[in-house]
Structures are given as C-alpha cells and as structure tokens.
Amino acid sequence: MGTAQLLLLISNFLVFLSIVVCGVSGAGNNVPRKNFYKSTRCPNAEQFVRDITWSKAKNDSTLGAKLLRLHYHDCFVRGCDASILLDKVGTDQFEKEARPNLSLGGFDVIDDIKRQVEEKCPGIVSCADILALATRDAVSFRFKKSLWDVATGRKDGNVSLASEVNGNLPSPFSDFATLQQLFAKKGLNVNDLVALSGKILIIQNELYAEDLNLWVLSFMIATSYINNWILNLIFIYIY
Q: Which reaction does it catalyse (predicted)?
C-alpha cells in the first residue's frame, strides 16, 4: 500500500468515526457546522488550536493517539460535550474517575490549549470544540494537513458521572452481542459496527510493516472497539 492510499484509508476511517460517534448526540438547536467560528469574534479559532497542537505534537509522537482515545471516551458517553474534562463537583464520582478512563492521557494538553485560546478569544471557543479540533490536528500533524473536517459550535456539558461510563463505553473485551447493544444505544447498527471493526483490521494489518507510529495509533483505536479474540491476534503481532 502506497503512502497516498494509506493516507486515504486513515482519513476515510477517521471521518466515518467522527460522523457516527460525534453526530449521534446533538441536541436542540445546538447543531455543529463547519467553520462555525468564522462568523464569531474569534474567526481564527481553528488556526489557533492547530498551531498550538502542532507545536506540542512536535515533542510528543504519541499525542495523536492520546487525544483520539480521550475524544472517543468523551463522545461515546454523553456526546462530544467535553464532560470528560470536568473536575469533581459534590460527592458523585465524575467521568475521569471511571475505571476505563483512569489510563487516559492528554488532559493537561487540552487544558493548556484552552488557556492559550482564552487569552486570544475570551469566552468564545468551547472545550468540546477544542478537544475535537486538537484531536484532529494531533493526528494530522505528521501529514501537515487536516485529515478530516470538524464540525464546530458545540456547547460544553455540565454533567459528568462515572456511573454513565460503564453502561455506554464499549470495552476492548466486550463480546459481539454487547458491542451490538452499546452501538444500538447510539443509533448505530450492525453495519456501522462491522464497518468500524473492518477498517480497523485493514489499517492494523497494513501499518505494522510501514510505520510503527501509525500502527500504534491504529492499535489505540482498535482497543476501544474490538473484542478479545482480535486483541489476542494483535498481541501476537507485537510479541
């Protein structure tokens, strides 16, 4: 597989992932759209986020994988509302404290990007959009161009409950029936599940020989979606 074909495959997969996961939970009039910030008092918001993210990605080759996993864990619970970034309020456990989220990374990166964007455009760019944009930009860094479009204009969530994570987030050890049930909760069907899993397997098999960093990224995606027997196969490739 050539570089151009590989880029197209990854791009198509990530666009599909963004649509089916981030598009399932939009509510009311809060409908994200492309170039939302162009008509606001922060028209260069996406450029700001990209520049900051790329400067960080230069020094951390794992940033794309970290943010992609963080973004996915956010989206699949309450939608892409950045509720996973919220700190604890009251006595209830919040999403960060849920067992599947204890190994997540990248929180400090998103916090710093938010801080820098706030210095330029106070009170305009949501954390939800920053997380979505930074994820896209971190993954795209090595290619020096955006691999997929991000719809922006999302509002930040103000509810974050650990109790909602386990019932919504697929485990890497979930069997097919469980995955089917969890996807159905989000309005996704078996075709969506098979499409995602199939693309993961294609990416995983092609990337290992060509670029270990890209393969690691595909593995991070895979651990969020596919079941135990596929993971066992992947570990055979590693060891």
A: 2 a phenolic donor + H2O2 = 2 a phenolic radical donor + 2 H2O
Fold of 3-24+31-234: Peroxidase; domain 1 (1.10.520)
Which residues contribute to the annotated binding site for substrate? 170
The dihedrals phi and psi of 37, each to the nearest 5 degrees, come to: -75, -10
pTM: 0.74
* DSSP letters spanning 9-67: HHHHHHHHHHHHHHTS--BTTB--BTTGGGGSS-TTHHHHHHHHHHHHHTT-TTHHHHH
Q: Which residues are annotated as a binding site?
A: 74, 77, 79, 81, 83, 95, 170
Helix (H/G/I), strand (E/B), else coil: 135:
helix
Q: Work out the end-to-end distance of the chain between its first and last CA atoms, rounded to an integer number of angstroms.
A: 23
Q: How far is CA 26 from CA 22, 31, 118, in A?
A: 8, 6, 24
Question: Alpha-carbon distance 17 to 5, whole Å?
Answer: 18
∠ CA 59-6-34 to the nearest 5 degrees? Answer: 75
C-alpha neighbours within 13 Å on the C-beta side of residue 66: 18
Active-site residue set: 73
pLDDT tens, residue by residue, 23-82: 444 434 567 899 999 999 999 999 999 999 999 999 998 898 889 889 888 988 888 899
The number of helix segments (H) and strand segments (E) in the chain equals 9, 0
In angstroms and rounded to an integer, the radius of gyration of the C-alpha atoms of the chain is 17
Residues 126-140: tens digit of each pLDDT: 999 999 999 999 988
